[in-house]
């Protein structure tokens, strides 16, 4: 009967191997096929512009909103104005109807939306119903759009009038008068010729002279004169 012994050992060894393989299979976690775009499904990127082919070329950030200017297409060559609320993620998309420099205006019915690197406005029936300061304005290449005080200088005062946003800039002391036109964002930079910021804030005044043009700014009024004749006089609407 010894000739049966090898067969018996073979069957027993095979049975043991099958049991071991089954146990290993049960203890090994099952692996499911993962779609190639699984990461996109887990973290979908919200689409900002009307089409995935259109990318934002400008982005503006205020306290309450994120605003984007998307590139244009065959339907609207000037692009699209997209505003997203930071509180409830509500979104509006309106075709841009006009641009001047870095000023973008989008109109829809009786409402106009305007954004510049310095402020966001909503105008209804020619009346401003919303105005917010732009904290950050970035171009598509990542470059900052807003240019107030030169890099490294402090802001000693910031005034808003109907037509201008004015900065009083300097390092340790006020040295520069810088104004941004609200229409077209043209920048005017003139060294201060004199200033008086002592006493109560209401008495502060700043004077800058460039040739025959004289810029006079207080917390109440901005006056621009040419050769002694006042050509612009505007009330200061807001002062920081």
From TrEMBL:
Signal is among the record's keywords: yes
Signal peptide: 1-33
Keyword terms: Signal
Highest taxon above the source species: Bacteria
Name used for this protein in its record: C-type lysozyme inhibitor domain-containing protein
């Amino acid at each position: 009967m010894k000739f049966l012994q090898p067969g018996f050992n073979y069957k027993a060894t095979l049975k043991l191997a099958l049991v071991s393989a089954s146990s290993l299979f049960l203890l090994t976690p099952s692996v499911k096929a993962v779609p190639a775009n699984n990461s996109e499904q887990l973290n979908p990127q919200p689409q900002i512009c009307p089409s995935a082919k259109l990318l934002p070329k400008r982005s503006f950030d205020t306290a309450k909103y994120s605003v984007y200017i998307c590139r244009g297409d065959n339907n609207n060559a000037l692009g699209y104005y997209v505003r997203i609320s930071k509180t409830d993620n509500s979104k509006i998309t309106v075709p841009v109807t006009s641009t001047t420099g870095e000023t973008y205006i989008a109109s829809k019915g009786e409402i106009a939306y305007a954004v510049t690197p310095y402020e966001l406005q909503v105008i209804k029936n020619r009346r401003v119903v919303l105005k917010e300061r732009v904290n950050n304005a970035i171009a598509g290449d990542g470059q900052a759009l807003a240019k107030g005080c030169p890099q490294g200088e402090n802001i000693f005062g910031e005034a808003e009038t109907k037509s201008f946003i004015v900065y009083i800039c300097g390092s340790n002391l006020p040295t520069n008068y810088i104004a941004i036109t609200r229409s077209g964002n043209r920048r005017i930079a003139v060294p201060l010729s004199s200033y008086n910021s002592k006493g109560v804030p209401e008495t502060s005044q700043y004077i800058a002279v460039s040739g025959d043009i004289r810029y006079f700014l207080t917390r109440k009024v901005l006056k621009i004169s040419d050769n002694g004749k006042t050509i612009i006089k505007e009330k200061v609407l807001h002062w920081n």
